[in-house]
Structure to design on (193 residues):
């Protein structure tokens, strides 16, 4: 595909090399033109290359041959061999972000469901990622999937308030608690998370 990005390394890994990133400029039935993403880093000076693509929780490796060169760009063959495998770096759950395990007391408010003066519900924050977080809450507390809540971390010098939406509620067997899977709303950008 045009504009696809690949990590480019020699097919023979038993040599000194510096990996670089390549972007597909154009492609046809016989191959594709790649240019280096960083003009300061040229492609390895060998004829057989591996193009490595990271796609969700998979790594796709394609073995190609350099057929032609023009300035810094190279024209590579259609892949001789392709391999798709689960990434060893991606969590086995297929999540896009790593979760950080924590154990922090939090207070939960659902102002639009309860009266403004209702006391906050106490829970524990158990993990956190860029996409959301998980809480352990007593099962006597009532929550609904899709409900918007505000979580406040207790005990920090500067209180942190976090808006979230309940994705899933899972009762924990043998315990009087529910696990709440929360996601951050779309209007919270990645830098705020």
């Amino acid at each position: 595909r045009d504009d696809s990005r690949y990590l480019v390394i020699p097919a023979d890994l038993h040599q000194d090399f510096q990996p670089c990133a390549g972007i597909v400029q154009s492609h046809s039935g016989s191959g594709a033109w790649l240019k280096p993403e960083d003009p300061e880093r040229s492609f390895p000076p060998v004829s057989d290359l591996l193009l490595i693509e990271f796609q969700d929780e998979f790594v796709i490796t394609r073995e190609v041959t350099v057929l032609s060169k023009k300035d810094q760009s190279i024209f590579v063959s259609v892949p001789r061999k392709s391999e798709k495998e689960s990434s060893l770096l991606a969590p086995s759950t297929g999540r896009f972000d790593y979760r950080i395990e924590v154990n922090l007391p939090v207070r939960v408010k659902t102002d639009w469901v309860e009266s403004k003066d209702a006391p906050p519900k106490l829970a524990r924050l158990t993990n956190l990622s860029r996409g959301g977080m998980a809480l352990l809450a007593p099962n006597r507390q009532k929550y609904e999937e899709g409900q918007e809540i505000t979580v406040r971390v207790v005990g920090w010098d500067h209180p942190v308030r976090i808006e979230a939406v309940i994705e899933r509620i899972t009762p924990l067997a043998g315990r009087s608690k529910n696990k709440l899977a929360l996601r951050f709303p779309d209007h919270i950008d990645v830098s705020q998370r």
In short: The chain has no helices and 13 strands. The chain has a mean pLDDT of 84. The first strand starts at residue 5 and ends at 10.
